[in-house]
Design brief:
single chain; 2 domains; twelve-stranded antiparallel β-sheet; globular
Length: 325
Amino acid sequence: MSKRTLMAILLAGLCLAVSPALANPLQKNQIGPGANWVVHADLDAFRSSQFGKLMMDELKAQGVEEKLQSFATIFSFNPLTDVHNVTLYGKGKDRNNAVAIVDGQFDAQKLISLIRLNPQFQETPYQGVTLYRWQNEDKKGGQSEGQLMYGFVREGRGVAISTGLDALKQAADNLKGSGAGSSTGLAAQVTPAQSGTFFQAVASSLGSLTGDNPQAAILKQTDLFTADAGETGDKVFAALHLRGQAPEVADNVMKLVQGVVAMAQLATQEQPKLSELAKNVNVTLQDKTVQVRFEAPAQSVFAFLKEQWEQKKEQPKPTTQGTTP
């Protein structure tokens, strides 16, 4: 089986579901009890926003939708339109502790039949669900290398997938419950989302995520990070909260953020659009928590992102030294 086919199967698996599902904000009972970070994207809410529509129109103009037609024909779903929401959670930097929960509208049996072609395919019954195993192959230098993947179908709702079998089993146990543990651990730190929110992220114990990176030293002294983004009216908003372990830590974080914002505001010659957008950032400090709020017209945010994308495409690609033409 070719690398291209296997990668397509993996992507299909990540978006596997058995019936249509309504998009929802982050569901606390989906978060594993041992998780210290979670990311949620409500793609239906994003596509219905003015900003989302601008982005989708641009993807069509760039030919992305056309390029996905053959994929959609083979796998009976379009990644741009048929995925409703995605939740990722985990503990630390180990990917084997991470779980992806995807809701969407797909032909589950067709996708499973394709995954069955994988040489590492295996199915195992576990606590009332069937666990599937397959390998994401990547051939380099004639040797077959790849990551084993595990997943199970959530009847009528979607799929859960992980590179760690133990993490997937824990997800199956957790999802079978009725929200047990949703008021404790990381789930207790998740606050109700503002209307129009299409992205949420929460993380605690940030030191376990930053590792030995010296540039992230200040984050190791941060207890909690939350981020929300969405659209209200015709404006895109983003809200960040960083809670320091002590008041002086929060004060240092606020000064750092204020410095970054000030530099962006002064970039009137190099990045005029960035300079204008930076004027819409408000930074405040309450007790040990730094609060950052951004709000600007969706059209302005889209224009800036499009400009950055165009500039990146125009940059020359780096050449590899010592290669033979």
